[in-house]
Amino acid sequence: MKPYLALFRSGPSSLHPAAVARLGEQNFDYALSHFGDDLPMAEGAVFVHRQKGAKWPGLEQTLLAHWETIAQYRYVWLPDDDLLCVPEMVSRLFAICDDLQLELAQPALTLDSHASHLITLQHSAFQLRFTNFVEIMAPVLSIEMLARVHPTLAGNVSGFGLDALWPRLSRLGKVAVIDDTPIKHTRPLGGPNYKAGAQAGLTPLQEDWLTAASRFIETPVDFHINIAGLLQNGDPICIGSSREEANALLQAVAASTETMTVAPLTLTRYLANHYSFWTGGEQGRVRYPRSMLRIALNQALKHAGISFPAPPEQSSQAYGVSALVTRERLVATA
Fold it and tell me: In terms of domains, do 142 and 285 share one?
């Protein structure tokens, strides 16, 4: 048994065969949660579980039926059936997640993908980004995180709202979009999951509302932030408390969007989210000094030898944060 499992929700036109080619050379096993009428050819699969219906109700049942087997893996990937990638990318994706001890992650989408969210597209300036969002199109979860989120699947047909909820069940430095392992989303948005939700009497939007209301999620659906990341040269960077830090991170994000085809309003909103967060949220209030982000990141990634540097001394009073408190906190966690 290998340490990682790719559990594909598969159908008649599933693209998973490309991801499991040369499987003997990879670090992962694979299994199928199949929604087609006929059982597929699945040479080398750990199991094939046939379950009709939408992705998340189907996966919920597959997880229940095969949990004893699934629980033996350290990480599990749950991709849609219309994602195209090569097995070497999947192996690298798992290796990065394990090396950094991430709890929730996803591969970035190639720039020619059908995409809903700008934050999920590959950002060329980064190896990976620590975010407040991972789309449920292709999440990678530690086995502990998978057990944690499994109860949230109950009653959710479309999956809407789950990608806003799941990061809140983890913590900063354990949630990431991995730019070094891009995959392609090949089909337009709005597939059978939308239809299944409508047939169940609850639209995807209504499911999103219900999830948000029941879990105290107040931020807008597109309030996505890259809080930190590793640049292509390996340097750690975070939004931090100083203008220099915020500018550096935004410059890297903005530079990464130059080759994207994106509407000006969408791009403006995306970049503005970062400024709004840095200054204290949409209500202009700061619950905690943004210097705490660096401390939390350093704690979460200490095991990997990743440390986010302190800001320039002259910037320690950015937007009213006490210089004394900031320095003392940093020294205390050094």
Answer: no
Q: Higher-confidence residue: 241 or 67?
A: 67
Confidence of residue 87 (pLDDT cuts 50, 70, 90): very high
Q: Which residue has the tokens 């597959």?
A: 62
Model confidence pLDDT, tens digit, residues 50-72: 988 899 999 999 999 999 999 99
CA distances from 311 to 242, 304, 317 (A): 6, 21, 10
Q: Count how many domains the chain has.
A: 2
Element at 260 (helix H, strand E): none
Whether 184 and 84 have beta carbons less than 8 Å apart is answered as: yes
pLDDT value, residue 311: 83
State residue 330's pLDDT score.
33
CATH number of the domain that 65 lies in? 3.90.550.10
Residue 317 lies in a domain: yes
What is the DSSP track for 18-47? Answer: HHTTTGGGSSEEEEEEE-SSSPPP-TT-S-
Which residues 6+ apart lie within 8 Å of 203 measured at CB? 158, 197
What is the residue whose two structure tokens read 């059982």?
39
The pLDDT confidence band at residue 327, using thresholds 50, 70 and 90, is: very low
Residue numbers of the domain that contains 279: 234-332
Q: What's the residue count for the chain?
A: 334
Give φ, ψ of 32 to 5 degrees: -120, 135
